[in-house]
Amino acid sequence: MRICSKQIVLQTEDAALSEVLPAERALILNIETTGISAERSRVVLIGCMRRSAGAWDLIQWFDDTGEEERLILSSFLLYASEADALVTYGGDRFDLSFLRKRLAEHDLGTIPEDCLSLDLYKELRPYKKFAGLPDYKQMTVEAYVGTDREDTLEGAEIAKLYNRFLHFGAREAADQILSHNEADLCGIAQLLPLLHLRQLAEPSLTVRKAQANYYTDHEGVRREEMFLFFRLPAPLPLSVGGMADHCLFRIDDAEGVLKIPIYTETMRYFYANYKDYYFLPEEDMAIHKYIASYVDKSHRLQARPETCYTKKTASFLPEWDLFRTPFFKRAYTDDEIFFEFGTDMKKDRETLSAYASYVLAHILRS
Prior knowledge:
Elements: E1 2-8, H1 15-18, E2 26-33, E3 43-52, E4 55-62, H2 69-79, E5 85-88, H3 95-105, E6 116-119, H4 120-124, H5 128-131, H6 138-145, H7 158-168, H8 171-190, E7 206-216, E8 222-231, E9 240-244, E10 247-252, E11 255-270, E12 277-280, E13 285-288, H9 289-292, E14 301-302, E15 309-319, E16 337-340, H10 343-346, H11 349-365
Parallel strand pairs: 2-5, 5-6
Antiparallel strand pairs: 1-4, 2-3, 3-4, 7-8, 8-11, 9-10, 10-11, 11-15, 12-13, 12-14, 15-16
Helix pairs in contact: 7-8
């Protein structure tokens, strides 16, 4: 077994990791294998990095005989015994699953159940459609974030290189495997800010500016929209954007903007207890029976659910699960609902921030 160790200085941002646990308690992990099946393949290299005094301590265990998988597995298990978390990219699906099966095969125990798994791919996965990358392989994400990675070796090439090393003594092949593993580890360290994506799960935005805009649509109708410029608590490592229900967002770094339509028109508020109301066709509105008793019977009808309403002309904003009440609709059978956008809200930065968080959460869930 060959053991390689050194200290690496990287431009990394630990704040995202520190929100989960002390950076020194986390271990970045990446493995190299002879194939993707843990039943038919074996581990040939395990690499780890740990934060230490402003740098990263790298250690790699390499099976340089083809017979020392058990030794590198037991060495890793001992080294990782004090870690509180294992940080990987796609590790829940591959690295950790593969290691557990190979550890079991050698009857070496397993990775402690209380050791937290931080899979950076899983942090990114819910927002894939909003990032717009061609794929979400580690090297693609690194290129987008900007890690200056030079290694371009694909994981599928590792088995061929390892066979060259074992059967032909090609030392440069072993060096390529070790270099590739190191590049993956350094890349994961530089992708730690992906943990900042967690703040999108329950957005808490701070609106710093609200701005109305008027435009004419393709049918020549004058429309109004609102831009909410907001700030996230922490910057994102990649730009994201998307839309749903005519609302649009874009976030770059920690700054973002939401575009939300404003509907200035006449809408209806529907009363729930329609049996207590009469509908007045001439006034196109419903009133309570207590008051309607003074209205001539020929000018009133028993209200039905679809006619039990009062109308209001105002500016309205969209909502989906009662951000504010009362809610208004264009017609009784409509699924879309709205609330009145009054002057009180226009001047209330706290409410605007809450609404921006609400709209962003809706788009991200859609």
